[in-house]
């Protein structure tokens, strides 16, 4: 059986890149993208895809979440956390970007659910965050290599009671071509590189990981919308 160790050097380097990107380079663009503000054609496809993915992830949780706790790992501007809180969950929403956390908190105040969400800027894998009923990584692992994704899941799994939902950038010809051409965002706003992953190989790696032996792989579904392509995977505790 295989054992995966998360490289602290790689992880910290990637986290630093993402913090710089979301906090400095693209905070305003992501605030607009995740709102109802007018956007261009390319960003409109990304917005639509993210909306569909968020709805899919939330559909895999119970309709009634009162009495449960949720870790929104890489919460961005907070739409998923708000919807989960509206369904009764106590949410911990964390992101590497303090700027996006500010936006998320403001939106939760407007939605009337800020009292049900704890917003934090920091490391989504920090064990000090505590234990949760469910955890969701929506597009927050897509910049990491396969082994680092597996290691991140293994690190988090002991603190999750029921399910972990996460997304990857699926390895497809279209996605590879778009990123090779650098067309996902204009040059000045381009995010750190995604790491396209073969879903079947990821599933095999998860199955071989001793720390994830108490988990079974559940629902798997891809969302594709123009320039957005993401695949979700559900892990359920046995």
Relevant CATH superfamily: Vaccinia Virus protein VP39
Question: What shape does the CA trace take?
Answer: globular
Total E-strand runs: 7
Q: Rg, please?
A: 17 Å
Q: SSE order in H/E notation?
A: HHHEHEHEEHEHHEE
Output mean pLDDT. 88
Report the sheet-strand fraction: 15-25%
> What is the CATH level 1 assignment?
Alpha Beta
Number of domains: 1
Assembly type of the chains comes to single chain
The CATH architecture assignment turns out to be 3-Layer(aba) Sandwich
- Kindly name the structural category: alpha/beta
> How do the strands line up in the largest sheet?
3-2-1-4-5-7-6
End-to-end C-alpha gap: 19 Å
Q: Helix segment count?
A: 8
Low-pLDDT segments: 185-189
Please give the largest β-sheet. 7 strands, mixed
Q: Roughly what percent helix?
A: 25-40%
What does this structure look like?
The two termini are 19 Å apart. The chain has a seven-stranded mixed sheet, sandwiched between helices. The protein has 238 residues and is of the alpha/beta class. Helix 4 links the parallel strand 1 and strand 2. Helix content is 40%, strand content 22%. Mean pLDDT is 88; it is low at 185-189. It has helices at residues 8-25, 27-33, 41-59, 79-86, 98-111, 146-156, 173-181, 199-207; strands spanning 69-73, 90-95, 117-121, 132-137, 160-168, 215-225, 228-237.
